[in-house]
Amino acid sequence: MPATKPIFCPICRKLVEPTNEDFPFCSDRCRVIDLGKWASGDYKISSPILDPDLLEDLEHAQQQNHPFSDDSKWKN
Fold it and tell me: 75 lies in a domain?
């Protein structure tokens, strides 16, 4: 039987047995800490914005906040 790769708790980095009832966490405490990070927005899943209208709106808003950030239009 091939050796399995060790699994570590994503919060405290302790070694976790696959048979642990809190797997992939080492304890209920680490599971709750992880849940709190999701709830507070510490974790984010980002993806590219593909909607052209939304991209245009974001670009317009950025130009409103920083009107001179694009210096290329001021150069000869």
Answer: no
Instruction: Look at the pTM and tell me if it is higher than 0.85.
Output: no
Nearest C-alpha neighbor of 32 from the set 53, 51, 10: 10
d(CA 39, CA 3): 36
End-to-end C-alpha distance for the chain, whole angstroms: 70
pLDDT in tens, 17-55: 999 999 999 999 999 999 999 999 888 877 777 777 877
- Has residue 37 been placed in a domain? yes
Q: At 65, list the tokens.
A: 């906040």
Structural domain tally of the chain?
Answer: 1
Residue 7 DSSP code: E
**18 within domain boundaries:** yes
